[in-house]
């Protein structure tokens, strides 16, 4: 059994919370006392049934306003898989929450209201999915019950969406007609849409290839912590602790340590009481090197035959996440895995209108703005391009005045 | 290319180890809050996997309400001896004796709320800048929205509207003096995940997690262990029951469930089939719909 992390964005009226509530409800993931609290709540659907949306509204302010204002994580599992849902609000003022929720997902669900078809927010949500490089997209055409389960309506919507998907280079898109409110095609295939030959949403989620395991040769491990017991029997012990971001390290592999450029060989890999022959993407291990090289937190151990880029000048997509606008005259901290260094945004190349996908020149960057910038760092970063290696191609910006996380960066190119 | 099996528990474990090492790397004076419950026991195992053969870069901190199950305390002391790490105890009784908090009265009196003050005092006394805890997002809907690195102000308060965005696997641990960060390495685990992990790792637990006979009373529809810490009167009928506990907290606020589960396998099948969620056995969440959110804002874990 493995884990599928998926992301949903939606607005108040398109039934996203109902869809998630339905997935939880129909997979028996709601326990008796939670259900009781749900039934005793004042919020009901028009026909008196339980309003499943309440399941995902966590904070009091959200319940009072009937909206989702933050990222909520929900968990359920079936016999086949464990699921982690990042549930985010879909309105433009919550773009930063969507970017946050999308950053860890390997699948996105885009909801389209069958009555309205592809609208501005569909474009916005799909753009964020493409920006954050989510591999799989499921487009749920929801509220099919409100359009008499019409195949014609459904087909017209997908034709329109295909144009958008092509424009955004979304490679793997699956379409499913559903009614979250009535439960059609969510867990069970619906008897109301015999013309639909595909799977229900849950069945699709259970079998989609998650590709959690990075098959690339880009072996990377940022060093988080150096383990030196300095006891009598472990006098010379020196282990580099970290999580393999991507690729695989095998015993005797030639490696390079960045930024120093020192070369060495993998002598031993440790995982608690085990000494495996290899460390793979996703695993948290301890690596020992044959040579005595100077390594500390913030350094990265990489495959010597597939080096990352190294640069102090990087072109990146930026999503601004703070109420205080970007100030190109001050220094920020950039945090790239375990490495933190000073940086400046030296140029704003363009901003994107995420409702229309039009690019335009800009000299300011405010909350929820997304666009392309050039960033200049104090120390060179050892990075990969986001599209090649998400884990080593992303970073955050921290405002040193407030310590807040103010920007999300996706590296697109090293500037020569 | 070699193939390998990396299942969901391996992935959750690797994520938690990564988070613990980020705490070690980013903070000057971290601490691991240890309650004696299964979630914090799991954290200790994860810390061993993160830092052995080195020492933990943090002490364990136990906020002792004085109303503990004795099984929890003896478990704690044995464990600390086995792992050879430092234990700091913050005592609620001491806070009461110092007049910093006042013991609740009445039938439902509990020291659960008082421990917030002791916790904040302990954090201030040792100047901890990060406190690792075993809270999980599946426990409760306010927790579902909390970050893995969650900033607390000087007063221990959590402000749900001012949470930092947390992207990819990058955790921003920068804080101002006086603030601290609560870190939740097992945020993405469910109750069942924790039990499956405990089974897989063959981790010992305090005996109260398993079925045993105990004198209980029924209060507000829940089974409570009869103890000197519970204010009882003539209306309370003491009955001998076969029970176990699903969480380990203060004796006056942790309800038992009737159960014959004596082995971990029994517990896992019981939970899989259970119709009551874990926090459903906590009387402290029952006060209002927003009970947890309010307590978190006030500095509760």
Automatic annotation (TrEMBL), chain A:
Give the enzyme's EC designation.
2.7.7.4
GO MF annotation list: ATP binding; GTP binding; GTPase activity; sulfate adenylyltransferase (ATP) activity
Q: List, in alphabetical order, the GO biological process terms annotated in this UniProt record.
A: sulfur compound metabolic process
Top EC category: transferase
In terms of CDD domains, this protein maps to:
CysN_ATPS, CysN_NodQ_II, CysN_NoDQ_III
**What keywords appear on the UniProt entry?**
ATP-binding, GTP-binding, Nucleotide-binding, Nucleotidyltransferase, Transferase
- The reply to whether Chaperone figures as a keyword in the UniProt entry is no
- Report domain Tr-type G positions: 1-213
Any stretches that span the bilayer, and where are they?
A: none
Does the record carry Plastid as a key word?
Answer: no
Q: Report the protein name in the record.
A: sulfate adenylyltransferase
TrEMBL record, chain B:
| UniProt-listed Gene3D superfamilies | HUPs (3.40.50.620)
Q: Which GO terms describe its biological process?
A: sulfate assimilation
Taken from the record, one Pfam family name reads: PAPS_reduct
Q: Which UniProt keywords apply?
A: ATP-binding, Nucleotide-binding, Nucleotidyltransferase, Transferase
Q: What is its EC number?
A: 2.7.7.4
Q: Where is this region: Disordered?
A: 282-301
One function term, GO molecular function aspect: sulfate adenylyltransferase (ATP) activity
- Which top EC class applies here? transferase
For this protein, the record's InterPro entries field holds: PAPS_reduct_dom (IPR002500), Rossmann-like_a/b/a_fold (IPR014729), SO4_adenylTrfase_ssu (IPR011784), Sulfate_adenylyltrnsfr_sub2 (IPR050128)
The protein's matches in SUPFAM superfamilies, at most eight in alphabetical order, are given as: Adenine nucleotide alpha hydrolases-like
Give every Phosphoadenosine phosphosulphate reductase domain span.
Answer: 30-255
Q: Which family does it belong to?
A: Belongs to the PAPS reductase family. CysD subfamily.
Entry-linked NCBIfam families: CysD, PRK05253.1, PRK12563.1
The name of this protein is Sulfate adenylyltransferase subunit 2
Q: What organism is the protein native to?
A: Pedobacter kyonggii
């Amino acid at each position: 059994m493995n884990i599928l992390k998926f992301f949903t964005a939606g607005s108040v009226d398109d039934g996203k919370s109902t869809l998630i509530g339905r997935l939880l409800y129909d997979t028996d993931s709601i326990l008796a006392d939670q259900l009781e609290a749900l039934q005793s709540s004042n919020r009901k659907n028009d026909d008196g049934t339980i309003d499943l949306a309440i399941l995902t509204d966590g904070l009091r302010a959200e319940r009072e306003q009937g909206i989702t204002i933050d990222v909520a994580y929900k968990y359920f599992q079936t016999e086949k898989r464990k699921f982690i849902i990042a549930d985010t609000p879909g309105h433009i003022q919550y773009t930063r929450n969507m970017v946050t929720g999308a950053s860890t997902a390997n699948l996105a669900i885009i909801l389209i209201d069958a009555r309205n078809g592809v609208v501005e927010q569909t474009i916005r949500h799909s753009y964020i999915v493409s920006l954050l490089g989510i591999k799989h997209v499921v487009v749920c055409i929801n509220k099919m019950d409100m359009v008499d389960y019409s195949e014609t309506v459904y087909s017209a919507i997908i034709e329109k969406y295909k144009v958008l998907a092509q424009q955004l280079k979304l490679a793997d898109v699956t379409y499913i007609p559903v009614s979250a409110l009535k439960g059609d095609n969510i867990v069970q295939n619906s008897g109301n849409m015999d013309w639909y030959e595909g799977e229900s949403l849950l069945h699709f989620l259970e079998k989609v290839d998650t590709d959690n395991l990075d098959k690339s040769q880009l072996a990377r491990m940022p060093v988080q912590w150096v383990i030196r017991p300095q006891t009598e029997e472990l006098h010379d012990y020196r282990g580099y602790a970290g999580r393999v971001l991507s690729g695989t390290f095998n015993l005797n592999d030639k490696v390079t340590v960045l930024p120093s450029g020192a070369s060495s060989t993998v002598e031993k890999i440790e995982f608690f009481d085990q000494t495996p022959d290899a460390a793979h993407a996703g695993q948290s291990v301890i690596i020992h090197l044959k040579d005595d090289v100077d390594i500390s937190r913030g350094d990265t151990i990489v495959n010597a035959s597939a080096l990352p880029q190294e640069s102090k000048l990087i072109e990146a997509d930026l999503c601004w996440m703070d109420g205080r606008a970007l100030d190109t005259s001050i220094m920020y901290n950039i945090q790239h895995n375990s490495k933190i260094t000073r940086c400046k945004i030296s140029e704003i190349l363009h901003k994107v209108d995420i409702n229309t996908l039009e690019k335009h020149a800009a000299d300011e960057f405010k909350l929820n703005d997304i666009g392309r910038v050039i960033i200049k760092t104090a120390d060179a970063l050892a990075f990969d391009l986001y599209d090649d290696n998400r884990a080593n191609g992303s970073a955050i910006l921290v405002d040193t005045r407030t310590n807040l996380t103010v920007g999300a960066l996706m590296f697109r190119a090293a500037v020569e | 290319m070699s193939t390998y099996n990396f299942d969901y528990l391996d992935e959750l474990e690797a994520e938690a180890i990564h988070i613990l090492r980020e705490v070690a790397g980013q903070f000057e004076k971290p601490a691991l809050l240890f309650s004696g419950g299964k979630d914090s026991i799991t954290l200790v195992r994860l810390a061993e996997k993160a830092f052995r053969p080195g020492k933990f870069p943090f002490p364990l901190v136990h906020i002792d309400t004085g109303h503990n199950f004795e099984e929890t305390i003896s478990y704690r002391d044995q464990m600390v001896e086995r792992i050879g790490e430092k234990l700091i105890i913050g005592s609620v009784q001491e806070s009461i004796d110092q007049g910093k908090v006042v013991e609740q009265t009445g039938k439902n009196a509990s020291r659960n709320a008082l421990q917030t003050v002791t916790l904040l005092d302990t954090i201030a006394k040792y100047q901890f800048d990060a406190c690792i805890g075993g809270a999980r997002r599946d426990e409760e809907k306010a927790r579902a929205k909390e970050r893995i690195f969650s900033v607390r102000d000087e007063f221990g308060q959590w402000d749900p509207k001012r949470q930092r965005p947390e992207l990819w696997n990058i955790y921003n641990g920068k804080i101002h003096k006086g603030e601290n960060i609560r870190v939740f390495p097992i945020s993405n685990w469910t109750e069942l995940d924790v039990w499956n992990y405990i089974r897989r790792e063959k981790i010992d637990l305090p005996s109260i997690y398993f079925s045993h006979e105990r004198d209980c009373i029924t209060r507000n529809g829940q089974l409570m262990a009869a103890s000197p810490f519970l204010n009882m009167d003539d209306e309370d009928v003491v009955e001998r029951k076969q029970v176990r506990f699903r969480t380990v907290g203060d004796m006056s606020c942790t309800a038992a469930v009737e159960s014959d589960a004596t082995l971990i396998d029994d517990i896992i099948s019981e939970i899989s089939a259970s119709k009551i969620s874990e926090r459903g056995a906590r009387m402290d969440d029952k006060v209002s719909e927003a009970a947890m959110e309010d307590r978190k804002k006030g500095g509760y874990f």
